[in-house]
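Q: Hi! First time doing this. I have a protein sequence and I read that you can turn it into a structure. Is that right? Here it is:
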Amino acid sequence: MRILFTGGGSGGHFYPIISIVEELSVLAKEKKLLPPELFFMSPDPYDKGLLFEHGIEYRKNTAGRLRRNPGPLSLIKNFFDIFRMGWGVLTAVWQVYRLYPDVVFGKGAYGSFPALLAAKLLHIPVVIHESDTVPGRVNKWAGKFAERIALSYKEAAKYFAENKIAYTGQPIRKDIAIPIASGAREFLKLEEKTPVILVLCGSQGSELINDVILGGLKQLVEKYQIIHQTGKTHIEEAKATASAILYNSPFKERYKPFDYLGPLAQRMAAGVASVVVSRAGSTVFEIAAWAIPALIVPITKSNGDHQRQNAFAYARAGACEVIEEANFSSNILLSEVDRILSSPEEQQRMRQAAKAFYKPNAARLVAEEILKIALSHEIEK
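A: Yes, that's right. Below is the predicted 3D structure, encoded as structure tokens:
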């Protein structure tokens, strides 16, 4: 049995695939099946170590993206990406034909288009998962021929045929979903009783969130400790700015900047955090798994306005407060953190809402569907 995974080049597309692979391994053992052969096709492997660790063979392809920005540079890039996409489709058809998997699982984004089109042309069953309230263009298109469509948000159901969808929630890796409190303050060099704000800007970072945190840093560290994931391209600037701002502050050790938080550090940060500040991508589901009150700052101009829709869907569940980019300032941030952390009742309400929102068996539900379709296709072959 062969299963081909494909997705775009971000952690939001890659890590759910890893969580599904983990569950496939468990299911194969439970059902006494031979371990499936697993493949990942994308323009970039994202994390070669994790692919190797989970026995997933990488297959490189090329893919182009269609930019909606009408500027001259975007038009030029779109022109050349038409040829990249064409070549990517041709090579994907050949590669997928040679592999001839029993099912292709698509996580969305432009990087998944060639493999999904190849599967359609070769009549190979397709399963997709949509992480946002508003699906991207590739998943909207793939949803027309996919056999099953798994959703993280109920709000996305209106974009797909009712008889194909399943509200599974977001698959999350086991090594991320469970916070670690024991030893976390020692590991992260945090004070014992001072509340912690965890700021997650992702691997690419968020210039806006970084600027707001640094702009109010002197006031924030008077009351709180800050674990600040700045993104790899922003870390040196954040360190230099914070050093200048907190030069004479007796609380300068309360600011802890990181370019990236690995699984262990992230779980420990979640284990001690009192509130999280984040964008509205797939990190929302990790925050829900941790059951931590959150302040969500969605990107104003995201594809299909999906970040705002994600944020307000999570807010309707009662697990977060949404701050629009236009309103996000150091004063507003400090005021909202003060409000939440001064009310144990509010914190408990948000934690309970997060627990209700989180679907801990999401990865298993998706894995079961993939396995069922793969087995039926294998029998047909």
